[in-house]
Write a structure and sequence with these properties.
Number of helices: 29
Protein name: protein-glutamate O-methyltransferase
Domain PAS: 907-954
CATH superfamily of the largest domain: Methylesterase CheB, C-terminal domain
Strand content: 15-25%
EC number: 2.1.1.80
CATH architecture of the largest domain: 3-Layer(aba) Sandwich
Structural class: alpha/beta
Largest sheet: 7 strands, parallel
Domain CheB-type methylesterase: 62-251
Radius of gyration: 51 Å
CATH topology of the largest domain: Rossmann fold
Domain PAC: 856-906
Shape: elongated
Distance between the termini: 104 Å
CATH class of the largest domain: Alpha Beta
Strand order of the largest sheet: 3-5-2-1-8-9-10
Oligomer: single chain
Number of strands: 35
């Protein structure tokens, strides 16, 4: 289609658009540019002057060099778009393309809706339409939109409805076509459409904005955009236009993000230098934070100072210590609020309650919340624990919540506990009343809650952790850290928690391969319980805190809490310990790997520390003479689950050789020791002959050495053969298990694909329904406005009205009805026949039934018991489809009319009485010549009956004796001019009376101060 200049309406423009364009100076006055410059901007390409592209007067850039803004959204984005356009000027110098999810089989009213909020032209995109600045283009339903050389192209969708991603499709095309002029704005919506397209916009140096999730009706799309870490600005919808205009006014510099993400100008060690500067000044190391997170925050600081080169920014940091502090604050994660993800805290409360019920009386409940920021999450835990304690009235438990962060300002703010009034959206009214005190400017946490929480500066990857914790909450902190640091922190969390302690992570965090340390309780909200498994502190030895520099000690199962022993119990324990030291042989308890878990007696004769780093492994510490016998015995006992005894092991001592008995027992009871091994060392009695033989064997011959080596080689071969057979058996089992897992994986993958397909289809259907809901909401608002207008109209008229259904049940009524029938709002839904009224009329129900049966209206005048009169009208209630859906009763107050009528009747009666008693003959005629009345004197004088005369024509009265042209002319003249006549002499002959000479006069009658068409005719003289 041909291009349409921005200042001229096309042939298919709506009347509102043509009226808008024809409004004198409406767009030009708001553009903030000279009139001549705007005229140039509104010219077509074929009108450009020769000698090169047309340049804008304000910026000196080519005409086509204007930003293209993609406004993307889904469910709930109509309100955000309204706020966005209402805060834009009439001519921002940009083109806007609105891409939202729309129902495929319904016509979209979005262009008409958006036209109400902006002075720019709003078009539904047509295939081949060229982009123009200061214009809004809306994607039509069931189409994919692409951009090529500034031309919008519509394509039929190639994906199924449940798989379509129209926002991603357009953003990728937009980024490739306009590159750094592309701007993507993500508004409210469901799903994650647009997350892939944002990467293309970022890679082509475009700008990305998102609506603040807390202000979005549906926050899924803004949160998905933020998860990509490519968003430059996150603001409420009404604040986005100001930031967009500020960005558009900046000169088109090369984006610093291009340098940050691999440009040739990027120095190899620049990022490490930035980390060094921050660590030197603040003491905190950000080298283990995710690179993308760090890049985005450095990018924002470089944009603020208009620095393009990464090395230049490093120099700027060296010269400006204040910038290091600002960058440090920029790198901090400060996203938190009260009861973030309320479902997660509801689930946590259930597990906490069960854990607290197992705590002994007067115990201390210890909780740690690292990365507490401004304290909302720490106070949330304190409130949650207090609510749990309320459900345990029989226990007196103390609560300690440790909240830590590396930001001193955040800690100070958290200690004060003062928060703005908008927390009312996150905290229920009951909790506000219980845990908060109103203060100027917001709310403050009550002192009893603040006393429970201890705030401290703490670096999670440097300082020693809090220990013996019942709960550790680390939500949405690990996602900002590198995978290496996450893997290092989880064993620290395991060490910090008490047995059966709870760990709560964020929705996007996981256990990173440490599933053996924790048992998942709630997969969705990442609630886990600490497993009481043995582990070595060497797993956290890479951390620089003092704990890891201590010698490793074996993990011993925690003692079971029991009541304080009595005096006689203490005596028995001492006796048992003495007997064990005196008569029990030295022994150790080990696991299948040889790690020593418990030592009894003096084992120094049999075990000794191995050279190098200290370990507690029995195979490394065993004396050389008993190494392979100990290994074989432990192996057989573990595999066969039976006791193994090896006798006659020669152990070299200072006085010669000693024979020992080595016993390995497999423990299967109690449950706490099941699977462990007990290794017992017992000395054997040695005779003098055996000692002499041992001394003689000290001088070993070649044959004896060979014999010993052959014996050891035979044992080694036997162990090797056993291990090979076991390995083969294990390999076969692993192959079978692998096949089963592969089959199960394929089934799960198929099921997952079906679930994803169903989810996306449901998501698309939901978005379409939301779009329809918005349109219906607009219609509902219009209907509500019409209903309000109708209500005000009925109230203003003062007409009492009752609406009934076909069963004569009241549907609604106007307030004026109370004067006639005392109705209350609670009477809606009751039959009108059940209600008393104030009428002197008993036929109302019958009249209503008659109207419903015959569909013919009824009108009558009725009177109330207090004397008021009403004109009652009953009509059928017809719908727009001409369906009878009840009846409408209206009462119009005619009391004043009735009173006037009575007064008129009284006045008429008085006038007739006066005329009737006059001795002079009189009669009253109207403009048509009819006799309205005569008095008694006239009837006697002309021998006529009063009742017979009324209604007759005057010229027919007395058999034509009154047919006098002069009289008729005088009557007509009097009625026309209002001037009466006197002494009109008429000569006529009456059949009964004979000839008569009459002298007549006439006067026009006046009623209510106004002349009527009636005339009083008097006979002043009557003679023969």
């Amino acid at each position: 289609m041909p291009d349409t200049p921005a200042d001229q309406p096309s042939s298919d423009s709506t009347p509102e658009q043509r009226t808008l364009l024809q409004s004198e100076g409406q767009l030009l006055e708001s553009a903030e540019q000279p009139l001549a410059d705007q005229a140039l901007l509104l010219m077509d390409e074929d009108e450009l002057p020769e000698g090169g592209p047309l340049l804008g007067a304000a910026s000196g850039e080519p005409l086509d060099w204007f930003p293209v803004v993609a406004l993307c959204g889904s469910a709930g984005s109509i309100g955000a778009l309204e706020q966005f356009f209402r805060n834009l000027p009439a001519a921002p110098g940009m083109a806007f393309v609105v891409v939202v999810h729309l129902a495929a089989n319904q016509r979209s009213h979005l262009p008409e809706v958006l036209q109400r909020f902006t002075n720019m032209l709003v078009y539904e995109v047509e295939d081949g339409q060229r982009l123009r600045p200061n214009t809004v283009y809306v994607l039509p339903p069931d189409k994919d939109l692409s951009l090529l050389s500034g031309t919008l192209l519509l394509l039929p969708p190639t994906q199924a409805p449940g798989h379509r991603l129209p926002i991603d499709f357009f953003l990728q095309s937009l980024a490739k076509d306009v590159r750094e002029r592309a701007v993507a704005v993500i508004f409210s919506g469901m799903g994650s459409d647009g997350a892939l397209g944002l990467k293309m916009v970022m890679e082509n140096f475009g700008m990305i904005m998102a609506q603040e999730p807390e202000t979005a009706e549906y926050a899924a799309m803004p949160r998905a955009a933020l998860a990509t870490e490519f968003v430059d600005y996150v603001l409420p919808a009404e604040q986005l236009p100001a930031k967009l205009l500020e960005y558009a006014r900046q000169p088109p510099l090369e984006r610093p993000s291009a340098v940050l993400r691999g440009g040739d100008a990027r120095p190899a060690n620049a990022l490490q230098k930035i980390f060094l500067l921050i660590r030197t000044q603040t003491g905190h190391d950000f080298s283990l934070y995710k690179r993308n997170t760090v890049f985005r925050r450095i990018d924002r600081r470089m944009n603020a100072h208009q620095i393009r080169d990464f090395a230049q920014y490093v120099r700027f940091l060296q010269e400006t210590p204040q910038e290091v502090e600002l960058l440090f604050k920029e790198l901090l994660i400060g996203v938190t609020k009260f009861f973030r993800d309320p479902e997660a805290f509801e689930a946590l409360q259930g597990y906490l309650l069960a854990q607290l019920q197992r705590k002994p009386v007067d115990a201390v409940v210890r909780v740690w919340a690292p990365g507490c920021s401004s304290g909302e999450e720490a106070y949330t835990l304190a409130m949650l624990l207090q609510e749990c304690l309320d459900q345990l009235p029989t226990k007196c438990l103390k609560v300690q919540v440790f909240a830590t962060d590396i930001n001193p300002e955040g800690i100070d703010h958290a200690r004060a506990g003062i928060y703005p009034p908008n927390i009312e959206g996150d905290v229920s009214p009951a909790r506000l009343q219980r845990f908060f005190s109103p203060v100027e400017g917001g709310y403050q946490i009550r002192k009893e809650v603040r006393d429970v929480v201890v705030f401290a500066l703490h670096n999670i990857n440097k300082d020693a952790p809090f220990i013996k914790l019942d709960l550790l909450v680390c939500r949405n902190l690990l996602i900002y850290l590198s995978s290496e640091l996450q893997r290092n922190l989880l064993p620290v969390f395991h060490y910090a928690l008490s047995p059966d302690g709870l760990l709560l992570l964020g929705p996007s965090e996981n256990l990173m391969g440490f599933q053996t340390l924790f048992t998942p309780l709630d997969v969705k909200w990442k609630i886990s319980r600490r497993n009481n498994v043995p582990y070595s502190l060497a797993r956290i030895s890479h951390f620089p805190f003092s704990l890891t520099h201590q010698a490793a000690v074996p993990s011993i199962p925690p003692p079971v809490t029991s009541p304080a022993p009595r005096k006689e119990d203490h005596f028995v324990v001492l006796i048992q310990k003495m007997l064990l030291r005196t008569f029990a042989p030295p022994a150790v308890v080990i696991n299948s790997k040889g790690e020593i878990l418990f030592v009894n007696g003096r084992t120094g004769r049999y075990l000794e520390p191995a050279p190098g780093l200290g370990t507690m492994n029995v195979f490394d510490m065993a004396r050389e003479e008993m190494g392979f016998e100990l290994s074989g015995a432990v192996h057989r006992a573990h595999q066969q689950h039976e006791d193994v005894t090896v006798e006659g092991i020669k152990l070299r001592t200072e006085s010669g050789y000693q024979l020992i008995r080595l016993t390995v027992k497999f423990l299967d009871a109690p449950d706490a020791l099941a699977g462990l091994l007990l290794v017992v060392f017992e000395g054997m009695p040695t005779s003098k002959r055996q000692r002499r033989q041992a001394r003689a064997e000290e001088i070993l011959t070649r044959d004896s050495v060979v014999l010993a080596l052959e014996k050891e080689l035979q044992y080694t071969k036997h162990r090797l053969q056993t291990m090979v057979e076991e390995m083969r058996s294990s390999l076969e089992e692993l192959k079978s298990t692998n096949e089963e897992l592969q089959s199960a994986n394929e089934e799960l993958q198929s099921t997952n694909e079906e679930a994803v397909t169903n989810r996306e289809e449901m998501q698309t259907l939901n978005e379409e329904l939301m779009t329809l809901n918005v349109q219906y909401l607009t219609k509902t608002e219009e209907l509500s406005l019409a209903a309000n207008d109708m209500k005000n109209l009925l109230d203003a008229t003062g007409i009492a009205t009752i609406f009934l259904d076909n069963d004569m049940v009241i549907k609604r009524f106007t307030p004026s009805v109370a004067r006639i029938i005392p109705l209350l709002p609670t009477d809606i839904g009751r039959p009108i026949t059940h209600l008393t009224n104030n009428l002197r009329y008993e036929g109302l129900p019958a009249d209503v039934r008659q109207v419903l049966d015959r569909l013919v209206g009824v009108e009558t005048n009725i009177q109330t018991r207090n004397g008021e009169w009403f004109a009652m009208r009953i009509l059928p209630y017809r719908t727009l489809n001409n369906y009878i859906s009840g009846a409408v009763i209206t009462f119009i107050d005619i009391t004043a009319l009735k009173q006037l009528e009575q007064q008129l009747q009284a006045s008429t009666a008085l006038a007739e009485s006066i005329i009737e008693n006059l001795r002079e003959p009189l009669l009253v005629v109207d403009g048509a010549g009819r006799v309205l009345s005569v008095n008694r004197s006239f009837a006697q004088a002309f021998q006529v009956e009063v009742e017979q005369v009324r209604g007759q024509q005057l010229d027919q009265l007395g058999r034509g004796a009154w047919h006098q042209p002069a009289l008729a002319a005088a009557i007509r003249r009097t009625l026309d001019t209002g001037q009466g006549f006197d002494d009109l002499v008429v000569h006529t002959t009456f059949p009964e009376l004979g000839p008569r000479h009459l002298r007549l006069y006439g006067r026009q009658l006046i009623s209510g101060g106004k002349p009527t068409d009636q005339l009083l005719l008097g006979v002043s003289q009557l003679s023969e």
